[in-house]
């Protein structure tokens, strides 16, 4: 009886040790997978890619070393050498979760990560976070900012930054605009207006915030479903929307474009 | 369904950013376990509670970790027998008062050097005060999770430095019946792996094999795996909660909480706790609110965020009992609010 209990305990411990190794290696692979499949850009700013990549390799190294230590006695195929490695017993080391549970959480989250790809945030999130054409100065300091660009070469973010430096909409009236972004239908705008938007991230998707400019259409916005990516060309005008004077793109050509590989702006 | 997918992406992005930092913290904790003689460390630290808390707050310069990496290191410090004031000072200040974060804040707020200086000074002050408050609790163990408390060296009446051998009761109990992590030594004796007893392990079993690099590396690896498994799982749960709240509660709601002098400070503190981004990069995020919020509220964001956030509360619970986490949370929130309000009124 005592013997079987001991044996069972030993099997359980080795199972738990293997779950640890699998959990850690799975996360290492997942981090590197995002790098190889170019999905890292959906999650984190390119400046911090190296961090995730190093983290992935670090986890693989730790998991790999541990796996190797556990396998070594068996690989040598000398029965007596199995005594060499006795997995340290980890009773009571755990605080919040029992040992198996922690590993299972790690493994489950990693499996979900393998099967469900991260994806770009939708207009729903943008509306929830509040789209704006002001406030924003991200990493780009104003001193690095070049205003000499031709208006039609400005991206959506360039426009927002320009507005940030000099907010008077009349100053831009008549300038040509050519921007790319995704469609938002803000409930407060009339039916012939949509917002053309991009998400800006400073570090990771958790801090992504949307910026956008209103686009005036000749017809109802229902032609362009939310989250469609568009190239909008037109001329800048000033209009008063929801009680606020603001810069609006008066569109004369709108063409749908495929979702860009890296949908964020920096 | 859409919201679920958005939430999952948020969850992944928090983890992709935080896991490397957690790994860094775990590695530092392992180094501390193996290559620092805790007896010397504990004796080198000042005994005065206030001074101890202050010195603890500065340890971040030695271990530049953010709020995911500080927990394994702080926990290691506690189990090494370092005084509570030092460990808590470290826990709260290290994510801000370290070279990487100061450099990042400087990069972001070069135009407002006072924000950089005040972030460091006020974080130091708050961490020192809270560390000091906790030092009035002579024996920290009732506030700690059982396993951490058990791993602590027992305080004896005649304290030899801050470190002591096992208590008589513990000695009378066979080693394997005591709690902790054990290794079986070459001679078949059980050796507790926890740092508190590491010097003692040197006298047990064959000294040569224990001191060897190979043995130390093995211990280092085992410690890393255990901490990664345990804290990784906690981090996953914390990130899931933070992501859910971010998706469920419109950010506009938080920001619309306030534009007034007092409400804006509160709004930014709530935002800091909810967004849960790492202290190394949060200054860039704060910068994006620079035109819409008062400098005082930005400062509140920068001070409070690294101390307390949703993602990190789970990690803190791996050291402290819920009660102690609530104390730390309440004290940190009140002090941050008070200091930033004073700043607001002066400028």
Indicate the CATH class of the largest domain in chain A: Mainly Beta
Shape of chain A: elongated
**Helical segment count of chain A:** 6
Number of H/I helices of chain B = 18
β-strand percent of chain A reads 15-25%
Order of helices and strands of chain B: HHHHHHHHHEEHHHHHHHHH
- The SSE string of chain A, one letter per element, is HHHHHHEEEEEE
Q: Helical percent range of chain A?
A: 25-40%
How many distinct folded domains of chain A?
Answer: 2
Query: Main β-sheet of chain A: number of strands, strand sense, barrel status?
Result: 5 strands, mixed, barrel
Strand content of chain B: under 5%
How would you briefly describe this protein structure?
Chain A has 266 residues and is an alpha/beta fold.
Question: How would you explain this protein's 3D organization?
Answer:
The complex is a heterodimer of chains A (266) and B (347). The longest helix of chain A is centred in the first third of the chain and has 35 residues, at 2-36. In chain A, strand 1 (176-184) and strand 2 form a beta hairpin. Chain A folds into two domains: 2-115, no CATH class; 123-265, OB fold (Dihydrolipoamide Acetyltransferase, E2P). The N and C termini of chain A lie far apart (65 Å). A five-stranded mixed barrel of chain A has the order 1-2-3-5-4. Mean pLDDT of chain A is 79; it is low at 79-84, 88-94 and 134-144. Chain A is elongated, with a radius of gyration of 27 Å. Chain A is an alpha/beta fold. Chain A is built from six helices and six strands, in the order ααααααββββββ. Chain B is an all-alpha fold and 347 residues long. Chain B has one domain (2-158, 214-346). In chain B, strands 1-2 form a two-stranded antiparallel ribbon. In chain B, strand 1 and strand 2 form a beta hairpin. In chain B, helix 7 runs antiparallel to helix 18 (322-346). The N and C termini of chain B lie far apart (47 Å). Residues 156-183 and 185-209 of chain B have low confidence and may be disordered. At the A-B interface, helix 1, helix 2, helix 3, helix 4 and helix 5 of A face helix 1, helix 8, strand 1, helix 12 and helix 13 of B.
């Amino acid at each position: 009886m005592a013997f079987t209990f001991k044996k069972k305990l030993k099997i359980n411990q080795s199972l738990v040790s293997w779950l640890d190794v699998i959990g850690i290696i799975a996360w290492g692979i997942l981090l590197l997978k995002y790098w190889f499949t170019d999905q890292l850009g959906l999650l984190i700013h390119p400046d911090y890619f190296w961090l995730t990549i190093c983290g992935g390799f670090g986890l693989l190294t730790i998991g790999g070393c541990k796996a190797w230590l556990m396998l070594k006695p068996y690989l040598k195929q000398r029965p007596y050498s199995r005594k060499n490695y006795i997995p340290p017993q980890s009773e009571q080391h755990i605080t919040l979760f029992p040992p198996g549970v922690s590993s299972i959480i790690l493994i489950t989250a990693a499996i979900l990560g393998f099967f469900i790809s991260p994806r770009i945030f939708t207009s729903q999130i943008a509306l929830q976070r509040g789209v704006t054409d002001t406030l924003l100065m991200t990493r780009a300091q104003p001193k690095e900012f070049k205003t000499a660009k031709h208006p039609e070469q400005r991206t959506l973010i360039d426009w927002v930054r320009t507005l940030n430096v000099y907010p008077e909409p009349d100053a831009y009236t008549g300038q040509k605009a050519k921007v790319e972004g995704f469609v938002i239908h803000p409930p407060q705008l009339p039916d012939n207006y949509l917002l053309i938007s991009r998400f800006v991230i400073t570090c990771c998707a958790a801090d992504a915030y949307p910026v956008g400019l209103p686009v005036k259409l000749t017809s109802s916005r229902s032609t362009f479903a939310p989250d469609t990516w568009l190239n909008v060309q037109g001329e800048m005008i000033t209009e008063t929307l929801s009680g606020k004077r603001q810069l609006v793109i008066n569109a004369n050509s709108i063409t749908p474009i495929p979702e860009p590989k890296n949908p964020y702006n920096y | 369904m859409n919201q679920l997918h958005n939430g999952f992406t948020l969850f992944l992005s928090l983890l992709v950013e935080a896991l490397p930092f957690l790994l860094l913290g775990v590695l530092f904790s392992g180094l501390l376990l193996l290559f620092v003689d805790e007896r010397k460390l504990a004796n080198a630290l000042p005994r005065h509670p206030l001074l101890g808390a202050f010195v603890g707050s500065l340890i971040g310069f030695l271990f530049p970790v953010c709020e995911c990496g500080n927990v394994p290191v702080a926990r290691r410090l506690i189990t090494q027998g370092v005084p509570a004031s030092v460990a808590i000072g470290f826990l709260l200040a290290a994510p801000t008062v370290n070279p990487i974060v100061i450099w990042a804040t400087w990069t972001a707020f070069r135009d407002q050097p006072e924000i950089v200086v005040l972030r460091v000074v006020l974080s130091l002050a708050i961490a020192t005060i809270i560390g000091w408050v906790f030092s009035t609790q002579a024996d920290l163990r009732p506030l700690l999770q059982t396993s951490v408390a058990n791993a602590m060296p027992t305080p004896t009446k005649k304290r030899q430095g801050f470190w002591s051998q096992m208590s008589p009761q513990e000695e009378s109990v066979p080693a394997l019946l005591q709690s902790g992590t054990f290794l079986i030594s070459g001679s078949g004796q059980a050796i507790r792996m926890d740092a508190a007893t590491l010097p003692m392990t040197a006298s047990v079993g064959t000294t040569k094999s224990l001191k060897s690099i190979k043995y130390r590396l093995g211990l280092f690896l085992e410690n890393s795996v255990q901490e990664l498994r345990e804290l990784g799982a906690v981090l996953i749960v914390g990130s899931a909660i933070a992501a859910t709240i971010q998706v469920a509660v419109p950010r506009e709601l938080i920001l619309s909480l306030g534009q007034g002098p007092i409400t804006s400070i509160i709004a930014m503190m709530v935002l800091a706790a909810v967004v849960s981004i790492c202290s190394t990069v949060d200054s860039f995020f704060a910068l994006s609110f620079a035109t819409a919020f008062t400098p005082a509220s930005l400062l509140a964001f920068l001070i409070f965020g690294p101390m307390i956030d949703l993602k990190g509360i789970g990690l803190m619970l791996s050291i402290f009992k819920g009660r102690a986490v609530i104390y730390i949370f309440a004290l940190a929130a009140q002090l941050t609010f008070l200091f930033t309000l004073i700043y607001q009124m002066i400028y």
